């Protein structure tokens, strides 16, 4: 009887999730500027402040180990343009080859798992131009050193990261370029400034971190350019390519850089969005194997606007809905 009740509860939960996913979109939340709606992206931070909860999973099969990272992030608006956030990353590293065989007397000894240092965020959106579909945000991220687990290689020093993020939609193109109006780009530029509390080289190296995305909005195409008749769920798709990496600007490896290309798809509904991308290294420093990124993202401001959009200075902001 207990098993039957448990199965019914699980089935009800799955049915509820399916209903939520299948609900038609009557309003778009998150990154809205003018007629443009920007989805959250997997590898590059978007240029908006919002009330959201996101989980991104990265998995890669390197010759020496299977590496999985589960990154979670929660952000909350304090005013229409100011938000705070907190994030954490769980790392799981399973050795392969000779190293794995040497330690693989059981998963407990062969697999390292633990939390990286947490990250705290302060974000301010200083540009939102509806006519030109431009948005820009300045952010300051702080990751205190020595908080995470040594077994997964957390840094002992604190990392301070000032960042600028910019997004631009091309809905203002002339009419002869209609098919390019659904295109949008975003970029993120910043520095990772690391304090050194021991003699480990990697703890002391500062880096220039960069990212850029190019996406095509099928919802924008069908709503504002031409209805090509794509049915649900294809009318919610965003084909996207992200590029990200970093260049070391100090230390004995100064000048070396990593770079990745991440082609994939994002699907967005009213309350959540899903995404999947390949993670392709673009040089030998970035690795030898292609990984995969997956994302589940919840729009808290639309799920429960009276709860999640409350602010101490501006009352209840409500969801960020696209004007119709």
Give the number of helices.
Answer: 6
Within the largest sheet, what's the order of strands?
Answer: 3-4-5-7-8-9-10-11-12-13-14-15
**Estimated radius of gyration:** 21 Å
Helix amount, in percent? 10-25%
- Overall mean pLDDT: 86
Biggest β-sheet strands, sense, barrel:
12 strands, antiparallel, barrel
Secondary-structure-based class equals mainly beta
Number of strands: 17
Uncertain spans, ≥5 residues at pLDDT below 50? 1-10, 15-28, 102-108
Order of helices and strands: HEEEEEHHEEEEEEHEEEEHHEE
What best-fitting shape do the alpha-carbon axes yield? globular
Quote the distance from N terminus to C terminus.
51 Å
Percent of residues in beta strands? over 45%
Write a brief caption for the model:
The chain is mainly β and 324 residues long. The chain has helices at residues 2-22, 97-103, 107-110, 218-225, 300-303, 305-308, and strands spanning 31-33, 36-38, 52-61, 65-77, 82-95, 112-115, 119-129, 134-143, 159-169, 183-194, 207-216, 237-248, 257-268, 272-281, 291-299, 310-311, 315-316.
